[in-house]
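note to self — DONT lose this again. spent like an hour looking for the file last time. sequence + predicted structure for the chain T wanted, 323 res
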Amino acid sequence: VHEEQINILKASKYPVIVELFHDEKDAAPAAPSGKKTSSKINIRSARPTVKAANKEHKKTVGHQFRNSLHLLMETLNATTPHYVRCIKPNDEKLPFTFDPKRAVQQLRACGVLETIRISAAGYPSRWTYHDFLNRYRVLMKDKSISKKKDKTLICKTLLESLIKDPDQFQFGCTKIFFRAGQVAYLEKLRADKFRAATIMIQKTVRGWMQRRKYRKTREAALIIQRFTRGYLARRLADHLRKTRAATIFQKQYRMLRIRRAYQAIRQAAITIQSFTRGMFVRKNYQKILMEYKAIVLQKHTRAWLARKNLSKFRCAAVIIQCY
């Protein structure tokens, strides 16, 4: 028998019922007065502490069965029960085959649907203030509420801000009662909050990683650009240096080639001029020589003619003189 029912019977207005459900510790002071306590019914709650049996009390089968039940109830009350209702998916015992109509018939026969309907009509979900605050405090928008020490007031303020319909929840002394679907709604809000926070954290971390990657890429690009520009500048300087050297070499080579050609032409011209001038000089010399020889010849011829004429004149004169 549950302790609440025993307490209700103890609080009855009938003295006989109150006397029947007195505990042993309540009946102990009345023993010296001479009253018999054997006629009273000794009823204990479902969560009693197992005491050692009196020496005069005999361990009957019923007493052992009651002690076993007490131990079983203590074990059950110390755990969190989860009841599982097993149903047959099909009557043929085939794997991966589900018969919806047969499953609904079993649920109706077992009273599961009616239990769910009754549970949904009331407040099937319940949370203690401590557990509710620990789980759903992330949904608080006003941070000043979290500084309050009264957990009941914090939970009321939080629920009134999240659930607009006051009929969907009720506040008890130690627990909060919810109608069907409200805990799922709160879980959805909590999941959305965590999802938004996760997205924000992921966005921040990814942004930080991308900025870090961008900075590294930018630094690497700057280093590559610096080395590339240095390489291109050195390559351009080397190209300009080689171009200048090639220009100087070409200038010197062309100058040398033109100079050699000029010197060859000049030498040829000088040679031609010398040979031409020599030819003209020799021609003039031959002409002068011929004129000189002609003059000499003329002189000797004229001298011979003169001597000849002189000899004729002399002979004629002599002849003339002889006559």
